[in-house]
Design a protein that fits this description.
- The chain has about 140 residues and is mainly β.
- It has a domain of about 100 residues: Immunoglobulin-like (Sandwich).
- Helices cover about 0% and strands about 35% of the residues.
- The protein contains no helices and 7 strands.
- The strands form 2 sheets. The protein has a 4-stranded antiparallel sheet, with no helix packed on it. Strands 4-1-7 form a 3-stranded mixed sheet, with no helix packed on it.
Length: about 140
């Protein structure tokens, strides 16, 4: 363009200087954990996945909750345990309807039914009541 000066040269590792009056973008506020799901992309377009989180009634993620998925689309139960952040992924599932049960400390706490579609991930959030232990501590 005529009349425009070339930008000053800088090294690739040198940060870009901002004008003092330039607006600085603020980061987005944190989202509720029950609304954030793992980005799960099924390995193939012929299978799907179920991903989600298990929390107690105070929104504390529950590590070690057992999820059991049953469907006529698969032989046997599909079993998974939540990780330290209360998250789980059941992947490589054939499309179909799945009954999901959540057990915590060997007691069934919740059930739901979800539909798995080929090439998609179905997201589920469970919030369950966990009674205090006899010594008053929370599990």
């Amino acid at each position: 363009m005529a009349g425009c000066a070339a930008p000053p040269s800088r090294s690739p590792n040198e940060p870009i200087a901002r004008r003092p009056d330039a607006a600085v973008e603020q980061p987005e506020p944190a989202k509720c954990p029950e609304l954030e799901y793992a980005a799960v992309t099924p390995a193939s377009a012929v299978v799907g996945a179920i991903a989600g989180i298990v929390q107690d009634d105070r929104c504390v993620p529950l590590r070690g909750a057992e999820l059991i998925a049953k469907s006529p689309a698969v032989a046997g139960d599909q079993v998974m345990f939540t990780d330290e952040s209360g998250r789980f992924v059941l992947d490589e599932l054939p499309p179909g309807t799945y009954a999901i049960a959540v057990r915590y400390w060997r007691v069934e706490q919740a059930r739901t039914v979800v539909v798995v579609r080929a090439g998609e991930s179905t997201n589920v959030a469970f919030r369950i009541h966990v009674p205090p232990r006899p010594d008053g501590e929370v599990y």
